[in-house]
Amino acid sequence: YLAIQYGTNSRSYEPEEFVSDFILASVVDKDQISDFSSNLDSANRFRVEVSYDSDDFVEIVGDNLFVRLPVFRFSSNPFKSNKRVFPIDFTYAFTHQNIVKMELPSAECKVILPSDTSVAADGLYFSRQCSVMESQVTIQTIIKVGRPLFEVYEYPVVKEFFDIVAECNDEVLVLTSGWN
Known about the structure:
alpha+beta, 4-stranded antiparallel sheet, globular
């Protein structure tokens, strides 16, 4: 249903409104967006590139700058109950890939990155890879749900998987020097 709703909404709104209202609404305000583009790539995947400035992701503690990473999906675990009595139906298999690039104030910044993480279970995959090249931090996150239906007996595995995803999405990177 989500894919159909996105398709309908993408045709009903101007591109800027669609991206700000449906893709970025949970991450940044419209007035923080400085540039964006959206298109279908050669594999017919919907791609959005956005540049924005926001102080909402940072906190200064002593000499350190803590940066909360923008999360577009699954910032919290949608499966809260300890028990489930009916199957999980995602409606369709999907892949969400986020690549976040942040410009550092200088190449001399010392950065502590969240650890690279990879978790797989039957039909589920999550990966986060972080790197620093010169004065740019890149964090690539992939979440794949390879099949739409998970049976009741699979619920504990699905819940644990999304617990790990939510924990990873809550981690921060730290600039320890050279940022101020």
